[in-house]
Structure formats: structure tokens, C-alpha cells
Amino acid sequence: MDASGPVRVALLGCGVVGTEVARLLLTDATELAARVGAPLELVGIAVRDVAAPRDPVVDRALLTSDAEGLVRRADVVVEVMGGIEPARSLLLAAIEGGASVVTANKALLGQDGPTLYAAADDAGVDLYFEAAVAGAIPLVRPVRESLAGDRVTRVLGIVNGTTNFVLDRMATDGLELDQAVKEAQALGYAEADPTADVEGHDAAAKAAILASLAFHTRVSVDDVHREGILAVTAQDVALAAETGHVVKLLAVAERVADGVVVRVHPALVPTGHPLASVRGAFNAVFVEAESAGELMFYGRGAGGAPTASAVLGDVVTVARHRVLGGKGPVESSHAALTVHPVAEALTRYQVQVRVDDRPGVLAQVASVFAGHGVSIETVRQARADGDQADLLVVTHTARDADLAATVVDLAELPVVRAVLSVLRVEGA
Amino acid sequence: MDASGPVRVALLGCGVVGTEVARLLLTDATELAARVGAPLELVGIAVRDVAAPRDPVVDRALLTSDAEGLVRRADVVVEVMGGIEPARSLLLAAIEGGASVVTANKALLGQDGPTLYAAADDAGVDLYFEAAVAGAIPLVRPVRESLAGDRVTRVLGIVNGTTNFVLDRMATDGLELDQAVKEAQALGYAEADPTADVEGHDAAAKAAILASLAFHTRVSVDDVHREGILAVTAQDVALAAETGHVVKLLAVAERVADGVVVRVHPALVPTGHPLASVRGAFNAVFVEAESAGELMFYGRGAGGAPTASAVLGDVVTVARHRVLGGKGPVESSHAALTVHPVAEALTRYQVQVRVDDRPGVLAQVASVFAGHGVSIETVRQARADGDQADLLVVTHTARDADLAATVVDLAELPVVRAVLSVLRVEGA
């Protein structure tokens, strides 16, 4: 590239985010050029169907269906098409051709991030992906640069706005899950097919990216334990409020003795915890580090304009590197930590059991916990009618496998009529 | 510097933060070397008195009182001594000598940041200062890099942990200010002389740095309108709670028509706002940007280990640049915005006035507001005893000068016995 010439930017994809990126490259050209040190020239936009209707801001002369050819003409390739293929092949071709790459593709990075990170490292080019983790929230730079002299021990994230909106509506108005999902769909916060959100697939992909970043190790979405929110009831949410908690779908990545555990599941969060007040479609990521202590990053996790803001921040950084020299840090996997199954996680459970309402029952229930080495913090009788009673048991921290085995044995206890709910407690 | 050799680090100052930085450079040497791409060698620690008692982790052989000489032997100079001189001269000497610089010195940057930014830019070296704004909270990289493709419109920060602790204690236990300050002193959250905190000097320095960063313009602490928390009473805090607010000392930097206004003062924040739940000695910075929307960064704003974490993150970044090439962005002041006085700020007031309790008084009070073009949002009668009544007036957004003039005229109105309190309302 001619040092005094423009930086050639190729856009792969022209949906909501791509259109917004194209618009900002046009309208903010002067300011962006000042920040980069050279003009950014949008040389083409790869789309599947060049004839499809577009926002008038998109210069139709830039549209092409030849993504491979476009990639070869660019200094910076911006991928906002989503999905695994052809995004993966195009990004690898861009990297091998010496272009810097910016992507918002959480599914691709969640599944195959380490391959892309290694390819970028080998080629000596930048790979930036701020928009892939939590939309507009600056998270990648803080974790990989600001905390480069520290050690992250735990990451707790609300990284899916759809489920956070749904759980929030259940909490504020007592809606059942399906009602809240319908409302989210009506407002455009949930897709017609909400599976990727409510079953936790989206959060799991982001958890894999977050864990790779925070612990300098390789984590794929297949390593992430995943439970969605489908089992959460209005009663769970109401009961949580009674005990001073809110129910949140959390992405948790944490160090354990000789490795990491990465998991996505609904959890009880104490109302005084900073994550508890993250409302509606907002996202937040809570980070615990050895020296820095507790940090939280909060903002919009989705949407065209917020995502475009994160993408453009990355474009400015990688374009500056091309003009002025330098390169961002690499997602090194030097730590090479083992990813353990959720069984090895250290966590707490809240178990709600319906039992016969007679003397000696509590002792039997308690002995099941004790038999698995699980220490009980509190037991509370939630409801009783003389015949049956509902007990709410909260444990101290224990191995997830021991907690799970306790719940299995509880269900088989003759005095236990039903295990009504089981939720992990985090952030306490 | 030999590309394969160590990066020579000089430490200026060896107080709580300096000692912690020295400790981490020693204990985390292997991990830091992996992240930098070369070992970090601590070549010396400049102190005033080499004979003074030190933490045993500090290698006494490294101590020197010749700071000027030390600076000439370093690739990276880390300044954690504080104060204006000799810190300023040493940093300028380091920059002119071609060293990269990391500083935690908010007083210096608040007063004379633009001189240092310009010197680093001219010399082509890095100047990083993550620890100077909000301790361990990553803020500088997010604002100057992640948001490089966006436009910040407003920054609201809780950037002084001492005053946040004091106001929090007033809110939770109804303490008066002096009691809460004494408690903060007893717990080590406030200095024996708390002036710099309670009068808002510390927050004003940080506000100047934040505003320079966010708006790419020159702001000095002298441009910052400053009111401390000394006038805040337990009654103000209790009344705030009644109306769904908390009182916070805010640093506010915002765009106005053709410039910026930067101010530090106590303000009412609605309890639902993310800043309202920032408790105790924590800090948080809330950023509004055109595309990204609302963002918040939360964490520990002070303390040896958190500050050392931020300093070391900067050391790793600038050392990487020396090993691998490249340079961080510069605090360009290309925007060259005018800094307007607080009179030009657009804000809202809550005014509490004690008036004669008789017909027609409200009309007289309302006409004073109307006379200055200030629109009233709500009026509430807080207390009345038949003889006198307390009115709580909340305005719509108006020019600060018009609001201030309204308050002056109110106090002169014969039916007004006293203006009991005046607080700005932010984040609503």
C-alpha cells in the first residue's frame, strides 16, 4: 500500500450492520481520515444478490457478488455477513493475502476462533473482533490490553440481550416465559425463531470468545456447557425476588485449579450485584482480576448502530496500524489451559423441593447433601399446608458434580415429592 | 534498543503503587515477557530518600536518588511519584530522550496534559495513562480506540471513591457529612486532610483528562467548573431518596452547540440509572456516544493493586510497541473545541424552597421560573405546617445560567423564607 494513499476497505455483507458501516464511512469520512492518518476508501461491498433492494445510502456501484475478487483488492476486510461459510474461507483468504481483518461474527469465532487467530499471527496481520462479543461494549481491548499486566480469574457476562429482556419482563410484570418471548418478538428484540437465543447458543459462542480472550487459551463453543432459559418459570423469578435475587442468563468463564470451566446457564444473582441492575436488552460483562479486582463493562449488545460503532473502532485501529506501522496483540494461546467439564466448576445451588410436612424430613434432606460433601448455607420453608411443604435450600460453594448428584438423590428420597427447581447462585 | 534484549524499565516513585508495580514486575516476569515478546528489566527506582524503610520486595540495590540519570538509561519510564514537579520535568526529559512513558499522575495530566501529549507526539513515543483517570478501570483504550469510529456526546463519571463512599454512607445510614468523612478516614478511604476529595479537586483533574480524551480537545483543570460535596446535608440525601434519586458527585463533560462544558458537582441521579448503584469506594464512568449509545465502565478507582494493574497493562502495551514496532494513538487536539463556562451547560435543577403557606404563593414562585424562560416539570409540597411550606421544584432542561439566575431571584421574593437546597439532576 502506498503510505500516502487511502486505505482500501472491503465490506463483506450489507445487512443492518453493513449498511450502517457503509453510511458512517461515507458521512464521517473527514473525521475518520484524521483519526487514521489517511482516507478510508470503501472499494466494494460483497453481497449475495446485487439486485436486492438496499438502503439509498448504499452506493450500488460498489456492490459485487464476487467476494473472493473483492478481498484481493483490499487492505482491510470487514466481515459482517455472519454464519460459518463462506465467511471463514473469505477471512482466511484475506489474512493469507496480507489484509487486516475486522469481524463481528460471533458464531464463526466461537466455533473456530483459534484457527483464525493463528492464521493472523502467522501472516503478521491484525484480526479485530470487538463487535463479536458484546456489541458496542468495548471489551476486547480492555481485556487483552489494559489487563495485560494482570490475571483474570473469572468472567461473568450477560451477553444475550434477548434473553435478558425476556427475564427482565418476567421479573417486572410476572409474565410467563412464552408471553415474554412473544413480547420480545413483537418489539424486534427476538427473532421469529428464538432458538439461538433462548437455548443459549448465542451466549455460548460469546462465552467461548470471552474465555479465549481472558485466559489466553483455546476455547471452542463445543467446550461450553450450555443450558438455555426454557426451564425458567414465572414462579422461579418471583421466588428469586423474595430471596433478594434476580434470574439472569450468565456466561461464566473461570479458572479452576489447573484449567478453566466455561458455562452458560440461568443463575440467581443477588440484587446488590452490579449485574443485577442490567435491564432490558442491555449487556454487561463483569470481570474479576487478581490486581484490578472487580470490573464491569456495560452497554448495548446488539443493534445496527451500536455494532457498527464497534466495527468502525476496529477499522480505525487496524487502518492506523497500516498507515503508521505496528500491530495489535495476538490472541495467543500460550497458556494452553485444559478446558474442564462443568462437573469441575465450583458454584452454589438453590434447590427448591416439595416434601412431606412432618418431623424428621429436614434431617433426611440435609443428610443427602452431607452425603455428597455439600455444605448447606440456609434452609427456608417457603410454603406449607400441613400435608406438604416447600423447602428452599441454598448451599455453600461445592463441585458442580457433587451438587448435581445431590439433586439426583434428593429426587429419589421417599419424603421428597418433587424437586421443583434447581438454579445456580453466582456473584454472591 | 537491541530487539532481542530486555526492555529497560525505570520506576519513578516507590510508594504504595510503585512498590506493587515493582513486586509484579518481579513475580510475574515470565508471563509479562511472554506478553511483551521480551523480558522487562527493572533498571532502577528513583526515590527521594534511598535510606527510608521499604517493603522487603523492593531490591534496595535498584534505589537511586538520581532520577535524571535513571531516566536516561530506560526504554520505558513509569511515573508513580505524583505531584507536578519534578514529575513534569522528568517525563518531558524521558520523552525528549526517546523513552516511552507511563504515568498515573492525574494532577499533572489534569493541569498540563496537552503539553505532555504534544511532546510525546513530536517525539514519536507512547504516552499511556490508564491509571490516571479511574484507577483500574480500563477507560483510556475504550474511549480513544474502541470509540475511534464514533462520536462521544457526553461523559458522566463517579471518579472519586472517597466522596462516593461518604455520600453512600449518608444515604444508607443517614449520617451527616462530617460523620461520614470521619468514618472514611478511619477506614483509610479518606486522607487526614480530605480537602482534595471533598472539595472536588481530584474529580476536576480527572474530568479534564476525560474531556480531553473524549472530545479530542484541550481541557485543563482550570477550565472545569468545580463544586465539592461540603454543602450536601443528610436531609438532601434523605429527600433525594424520597423522590427516587441518589446524590452523587459527578464529573460531567458534554458537547454543547459549538464546544464543550466540563463540570464537577453533586447531582441527583435517578435510582434506575446504572450510576446510581455504584456503591462505596467504587468508580464508574458512563459514556454516551452517537452510534454506540450508552456505555458504562465500572471498577476500583484507587488502591495500590488496582492502580498497579492499570500501570502494568500500559507498560506491556508500550513495551510491545518497542519490541514489535507500532505506537498507540495520540491525544490529538484536532477538534480544538471551545471550553465554555458552566453557564452554558444544559441541565435540570431541583430547588427546595421554604415559603409562606398561603394562596398565591405557588403562582409567584412559578412566575420567577417563567421569567427566566425555565420550564417547571413538577412541583411537590414536601412539608407544610399552616404557617410555612417547603416546595420541591424540578425543572425541565435549561441553560445553567438561567437556572442560577432563577435561584437568585427566588431568594429575593418576599414570600420565600429560604432556598433550602439547589441540586442539578443528571442522567434522567
From TrEMBL, chains A, B:
Primary role: Catalyzes the conversion of L-aspartate-beta-semialdehyde (L-Asa) to L-homoserine (L-Hse), the third step in the biosynthesis of threonine and methionine from aspartate.
One Gene Ontology biological process: threonine biosynthetic process
Binding site for NADP(+): 12-19
Superkingdom of origin: Bacteria
Alphabetical list of Pfam families matching this protein: ACT, Homoserine_dh, NAD_binding_3
InterPro entries listed in its UniProt record: ACT-like_dom_sf (IPR045865), ACT_dom (IPR002912), Asp/hSer_DH_NAD-bd (IPR005106), HDH (IPR016204), HDH_cat (IPR001342), HDH_CS (IPR019811), NAD(P)-bd_dom_sf (IPR036291)
Ranges where the ACT domain occurs: 350-427
Organism of origin: Cellulomonas carbonis T26
UniProt: NADPH binding residues: 106
Protein name (record): Homoserine dehydrogenase
Residues annotated as the enzyme's active site: 206
Family the entry assigns: Belongs to the homoserine dehydrogenase family.
Gene3D superfamilies found in the cross-reference section: 3.30.70.260, Dihydrodipicolinate Reductase, domain 2, NAD(P)-binding Rossmann-like Domain
Record field: catalytic activity: L-homoserine + NADP(+) = L-aspartate 4-semialdehyde + NADPH + H(+); L-homoserine + NAD(+) = L-aspartate 4-semialdehyde + NADH + H(+)
Keyword ATP-binding on entry: no
The EC number(s) this enzyme carries: 1.1.1.3
GO MF, one example: NADP binding
Keywords linked to the UniProt accession: Amino-acid biosynthesis, Methionine biosynthesis, NADP, Oxidoreductase, Sodium, Threonine biosynthesis
Membrane-spanning intervals of the chain: none
Recorded metabolic or biological pathway in which this protein acts: Amino-acid biosynthesis; L-threonine biosynthesis; L-threonine from L-aspartate: step 3/5; Amino-acid biosynthesis; L-methionine biosynthesis via de novo pathway; L-homoserine from L-aspartate: step 3/3
Residues the entry annotates as binding L-homoserine: 191
Names of required cofactors: a metal cation
